[in-house]
Amino acid sequence: MNDSSVIQLRGLTKYFGKSPAVYELNLDVPRGCVFAFLGRNGSGKTTTIRMMLGLVPPTRGGGTVLGGDIHALTPEIRGRIGYLTEEHQLYPWMTVKECGEFQSAFYPRWNDKVFRGVVGHFKVKPEAKVKDLSRGERGGLCLALTLAPDPELLILDDPALGLDPVARRSLVESMIYLTRRADRTIFFSSHDLADVERVADHIAVMDRSVLRACCPIDTFRTKVQHLRLSFPGEPPKLPQIPGLLQVYRSANELRLVCVERNGATRQAVNSLSPARVEMLPISLEDAFLSYLGEHGEKTFILAETEEKP
Amino acid sequence: MPFTFNIATGSSVPIYKQIADQVRLAVANGKLTVETQLPSVRALAEELVVNPNTVARAYTDLAREGFIEARAGKGVFIIPKRKVISREEGWRRLEPLIDGLIGEAAALDFSREELEQAVRKKLSQWKTPPNNKL
User: Fold this and answer.
1) How many whole angstroms from its chain centre is CA A41?
2) Is residue B66 domain-shared with residue B91, that is, in the same domain?
3) Does residue B22 share a domain with residue B69?
4) What is the pLDDT of residue A12?
5) Touching B: A residues 235-294, CB under 8 Å
6) B47 and B19 in one domain?
C-alpha cells in the first residue's frame, strides 16, 4: 500500500458469465504521473476503468480511487475525477459555448479559461452547433468539458480513437499542459504507442484479462531486451532461458528477445558460451509486440527490481 | 540561430536519450558552446510535446556527465566539460561502439580503407574545443 497512490486496486475481478473479463488485478497509480493503460481490444481495460469508477460492480476484489472505496464513491470524490469516454453525452442542438455553460453549472471549480483554451486549441468555434462538429472537433469539445472542472484525476478511455493526426497531437499537447500541476494525475488507455512514448511515464499492460506489467516506462524498456549472440559455428540448441519471448536463428547467430529476470536470463545466455553478446536496440513498439506475442514465457514486469510470477 | 532539438517516436532510442545525445553531439562539434542557455524542462517538454520527466531525465544525465549545470532562478547552461568518467570506464563504453561500427561496416561490404578514410574525414570536420583531445 502506498499513500501517494491515487488509484489502488486489489484482487479486482469481473466475470461476465463464465469467463473473466478482468482477473485478480492489482494496480497502483502514483500521484502526479501520466499512466498509460495498454493492451489489445477485449483485454479488460474498459471493464477495469468502469469498475474503478464504480460504474460496474466487481465480482470480487476492490480498491480505492482518490482515497475513496470504489464500491461507494461519494459525489465529492466523483467531482474530483474527470472521465472521458467515447460515448460522451452531448445535446446536438446546443452550441459549443452552451455546452460549456450547461456543464459548468455542475462543477464548483469550473475554469472557463481552460474550457475556451482547449476548445480553441482544437480549432472549434464557440458558436458551432454540436451536430455540425467533425469527430475531431467533438473530441476536442469533450476533452474541454472534462478538463475545465480542473480534475485531480483525469481518466481517459481511448481518447485518441477516431481522431485525425492533428486532433491527436492537440490531445497530447493538452495532456502535457495538464502536467503543469504536479499533483494532477492522468490515467489513459491507448493503442497508439507513439503517443504513449511521448506522454506517459508509467505503463500497465493487460493481456487477456490479466495484468502483465505495471512499471515506469523506462523500466519496461530496460527489461525487454534484444540480444544478438554470435557463435563460431552453428548456434547450439537453446536450453530453457528464463523470460524468453522470441528467438531468431541464423547460420552463426541467435537473436533473442527476452525479459531480463534479475540476472537469471543473462546467466542462461552466458552458459551457451557465445563468442560475443551484443545488446541490440529495440523500439517500444517492438518490445511491446514481443511481450504480448503468442509465444514465449508469460512474465510480469513490476518495478525496478521486484518481480513475481 | 537557437539550437533546435529533433525527436522521433518509434525509434529504438528512448526519447530522453535522443535529447541527451543531441546535446552531447552539439557540444562536441561546437554547435553548442559554453554558457549557452538551454530551454527549461517545462519549455522543452511543451516544445517537443513530451512528458516533462523525459526532459528532466535527459538533463539529469547531462548534468551528471558534466555537460550542463542548472542555476537556480537562471536556467540551464552548457558548462566547460569536466572529466567525470575514468579512462578505463571510457574504454569500456567506447569499445562496444567501435566493435558495432566495424561489424556494421563489414556487413555493408565496406573495405578497411574506406572505413578508415570515412572516420578520418568525420574527425577532421569536428570543431575541437580547447582542453579537449578530440
Assistant:
1) 13
2) no
3) yes
4) 96
5) 276, 278, 280-286
6) yes
Examine the domain organization and report whether B67 and B114 are in the same domain. no
Q: Which residues of A200-237 are buried (b: 16+ CB within 10 A; e: fewer)?
A: bbbbbbbbbbbbbbbbbbbbbbebbbbbbbebeeebee
pLDDT the model gives residue A162: 81
> Which distant-in-sequence residues (6+ apart) come within 8 Å of A46 by Cβ?
A157, A158, A189
Which residue, among A34, A35, A203, A218, would best test binding to B if mutated, counting the most B CBs under 10 Å from its CB?
Answer: A218
Residues of B in contact with A176 (CB under 8 A): 45-46, 49-52
Test A169 with B49 for CB contact under 8 angstroms.
Answer: yes
pLDDT one-digit tens code per residue, A63-78: 999 999 999 999 999 9
The pLDDT value given to residue B127? 65
The percentage of chain A sitting over the pLDDT mark of 70, rounded to a whole number, equals 95
Q: Does the pLDDT value for residue A170 go beyond 70? A: yes
DSSP character at residue A301: B
The answer on B57 and B94 residing in a single domain is no
Q: Which residues of A touch B10 (CB under 8 A)?
A: 193-194, 197, 283-285
In a domain, B7, yes or no: no
* CATH number for the domain that contains residue B53: 1.10.10.10
**Substitution target from B51, B55, B93, B101 for chain A, most A beta carbons within 10 A:** B51
Q: Which residues of B touch A179 (CB under 8 A)?
A: 45, 51-52
Q: What residue numbers bound the domain in which B111 lies?
A: 87-124
| Alpha carbon distance A164, A148 (integer Å) | 23
- The CA distance from B88 to the nearest CA of chain A, in Å, is 20
